[in-house]
Amino acid sequence: MKSVKYVRDPIFGNIELSETEARILETNEMQRLRRIKQLGNAYLVYPGATHSRFQHSLGTMEATKRLSRRLFGEEVEALSLVGMLHDIGHAPLSHTLDSQYEQHLGKNHEQIGLDMIFGSEIWDIISGSGVSKREFADLFSGKERGKIVTGALGSDRVDYLSRDAYYTGVALGIIDFNRIIGKTRLYKNSPAVEQGGIVGAESLLIARYFMFSSVYTHHAVEIANLMASKAASMAIDDGAIAPKELHRISDQELEGLIIGSSGRKLQERINYRKLYKRAVYSDLKEGSEAGRDEIESALSKSGLEYEDYVVTVISYKPGGDISVVAEDGKHIGSLGELSPLINTLNRVMEAKKTLLVACDEKNIGKVKRVIGKIL
What we know:
The chain is about 50% helix and about 15% strand. By secondary structure, the protein is an alpha+beta fold.
């Protein structure tokens, strides 16, 4: 796999590109990712968080190459391409509009991404390297060796934690990815960690927890993204945005379409950072029957308009388990079994659910009274 050029990256340094990779990067589908922010509206809270899905795609490709060299003794081009292309199907503002994909198209961004690859010149470029559609689709979906990209110890996570921590300035998310990769072994086609690398694997999952707590689910980040999702939903209902075109447009194009719809007021509040304020922000007890639909129905019946509030239940998904192997490759157990720290962390994340309801400051009292009757 001859390298023809390289790009400079703040996380990994020089990233070398093969001819195939360079050609794919030049496609319109990949270039669009330059105009998709990795963390949606998180830059309204962390001003440095304006990095793009394009940067993350390059980083994931590079992390995949490093893992491949460690696990197989060579770079596996099909895996490197999966790393580069794994997020190509994202809508504007990244995960912010995932619910619109699911609601209107019945697909997630991975499924849409695979459709994009097979339906564009990207597949013409890839197929020239001898990879079959079946093989690529399996890798892209995280089957077999595809876990090297998508797994709990995969290249996607290695890059986004490192990159998001760097651009937000949140040091709690920084990981020693070189040491983690250096202690990785292959076990049943998935990355596993050597027994001597348990501390590094623990640091990866702990960093993920801290990034979820302080960045990904920060209340103001959640509010800004919920407002954007609701504004996009209103624009879709108006016919200003076609859901099937979401994977073709950029953040800026989305904003322009929303401004021309009934979602204009919400979009303008986002633009000038006039975000809704927390009216309710509390942990839900286990077995709580209060659901998002019930709360939204009660708020609507109270006289508030659809765009006057946002509601979500924030949950924290455990980071997945990681196999631990001895130096001879023999399986010892899972990290969750061998590490009391990770075992406790997983239980904490599984149990934690937080209700967030936000609105204009003038409506906070009314919203609190409505929610108080339900909880």
